[in-house]
Amino acid sequence: MIREKTALVTGSTSGIGLAIARAFAAQGANVVINGLGAPEDVEDERSRIEHEFGVAAHYANADMSKPADIIDMIATAERELGSVDILVNNAGVQHVAPIEDFPPEKWDAIISINLSAAFHAIRAVAPGMKKRGWGRIINTASAHAVVASPFKSAYVAAKHGVAGLTKTAALEFARSRITVNAIAPGYVWTPLVERQIPGTMEARGMTREQVIHDVLLEAQPTKEFVTSEQVAALAVFLATDDAASITGAILSMDGGWTAH
């Protein structure tokens, strides 16, 4: 059912998003990747997907903080590839600081890219999915869509918002054969997580090793990072017919973090 469909994955030039894009391509889906990176590195990833999996792979340089860019990215994908059947809202940024020291511009950026971008993308793909009578929308949430951690006010607020948006869209699209779900990973070893470490070291007065073992993995009973490939495998499953009755779900993949 995935073969020859088109999957658009935001924030997919590295980390979880790239793993998801590659996983869909491996199933025969054409993909649109989006995100930051040196042009030569992005082109290398794009061409590798095409050559490894024999699918069309396009790159969109849309700025996920700009609604007009998001709308144009989806319109271009629909025009060039025929449709956007699977949307994965994965783009995300992070900043770690106490609330009283949290720069307002960082708050605005995190809410814009982590939450508002998902709304604008869903709004843009919905008409086409409804017309075709099929669609899959998968949002990358976080354990922080369910629980909170100190010094991450904007991120936690945004991910809680993603959970609410997921449930609302699922109810609205329930009769249109469009499912909307969120994957809520715990800590996945990605560049985004790695970049959190210096800020957490400063905020908590810890060493790098202490942050990894006493902050990041402290929350996960398995004491292991989730892998990008595990998140990607769940995303692919959610796009299959076997998952057609799963909608409005916030699916934890966090080593037991939120089981408490």
TrEMBL record:
Q: Is Nucleotidyltransferase among this UniProt entry's keywords?
A: no
Alphabetized, the UniProt keywords read: Oxidoreductase
Q: Keyword Zinc, does the record have it?
A: no
Q: SUPFAM superfamilies from the entry?
A: NAD(P)-binding Rossmann-fold domains
Give the top-level enzyme category: oxidoreductase
Note the NCBIfam families from the entry. PHB_DH (TIGR01963), PRK12429.1 (NF009093)
Name of this chain's protein: 3-hydroxybutyrate dehydrogenase
